[in-house]
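Bench notes, afternoon.
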Amino acid sequence: MPVLSAGTGLHETLALLTSQLRPDANHKEDMVFLKDVFSEKSLGYLMKVHIRLGQRSCGPMSVEEKELLQLLTSPHLKAVLSVHDTVAQKNFDPVLPPLPDDFEDELEEESVKIVRLVKNKEPLGATIRRDETTGSVIVARIMRGGAADRSGLVHVGDELREVNGISIIHKRPDEISQLLSQSQGSITLKIIPAVKEEDRLKESKVYMRGLFDYIPADDKATPCQEAGLPFKRGDILQVVTQDDPTWWQAKRVGDSYLPSAHPRPPLLPACLPTEDCDCEGYFNGQYIAGLRRSFRLSRKDRSGSLGGGATSDPTDPDFATYEEVTRYQHRPNERPRLVVLIGSLGARINELKQKVIAENPHRYAVAVPHTTRPKKPHEKEGVEYHFVTKQAFDADSLSNKFIEHGEYKENQYGTSIEAIRSVQAKNKMCLVDVQPEALKTLRTSEFKPYVIFVKPRVPESRRRRSAATSPLSLKMCSYESQQMDQRYGHLVDRVLIKEDSASACTELRGILERLERETFWVPLCWVRT
């Protein structure tokens, strides 16, 4: 061993000790342990602190050094360090019961494996189903974060043969459920692995926008209502796994899982089958049997990487369920996003739009509409309208060049797609107010529309309405907004409640400014290259 003087520092001591280490079969474990200790960054930091304090021992201490010394010598910190050392010396690995006597015989079957799991008063985190053809008990679903998932040893498709040495081949599903629920502490499973084992569940990068409200308690077909994920229309959902074609596991973006309270992501309804699909199995100590009958959609209408979940046309409210989305931020070299305003006549959207544009005409503009009516003396071509003949208007209409058009006092009016492109080509943000039916044409990767639903606050209007505003018109305005929200609300990015013209204008202006600098969720197909 090296000879150490009284003045030898901690760093030199450890360096000398390290130099004396020699490979030796009798002390190999000790050598590995010491090597791991010396490799710890925390030890290096302590050595630096020790050296710095030694260098300062001869001179006066600074205020910071005095404070550090006081903290390190305080009874509370000493108690915390003592508790840490005590806990670190203990072994918290679970104590498993001995393996069954016939364990070696079990291994003679090449396809059989024995799985030992520890579950502390929690569900196994897996559901089972009975194969109608063979009668075998199959693992149907693995809940992410549960005991089965954490082990990495149980996979979807595995055949379950025994639970704690008890054969389940001829047992009823409720008997199997009882066996699993009564097993506490440790559980031993005899399993025949699936022909092709699936990899452990990995964090998915698939995000969806929910296009409807979902309450698990109202869905009698869910495998477990406690595990269901409630969400509102417009919520962004991160799909954790789609391994089960009937039920996805997901979480709302922004939610976090606490191991004690939320050991696994909730289930998300994802099945859109043409046939009844089995959703039977074991979960939370209960045997579940049901048929997934809701959210039906024919196979020819299904598309997208999300299997049956993403509808081919989210503008169709009859089939709107989920829409795959991704983060998007406008780039300086891109054309500005189109801003679409919808709402009832009582919202007076055109007035709101024109006021915002008048405040900043260099950044915002409208798409100049086409008309067949004669030009008035004060009007200019291409400013108020594009004045065209009826023949030209009809030809453009037949060529689907208008996003919407109609007739008023025997004259035709319409807003063309080229009029929007003309505004965007000038690097201006185009604001259009249209009937919501036009969203089917505008929701494209070219325009990337941001849809704002302007709603007047009807109760306030009733209290402050003028004599010219009848209760009937207010009721019609409210009814029209409700119908529009029911049919097209899932396509709306923002709802603007119009208290008054000034506050609504301020809010709209703020939205437009954020569109140019912030990140927003948009359909994946808009940015996929």
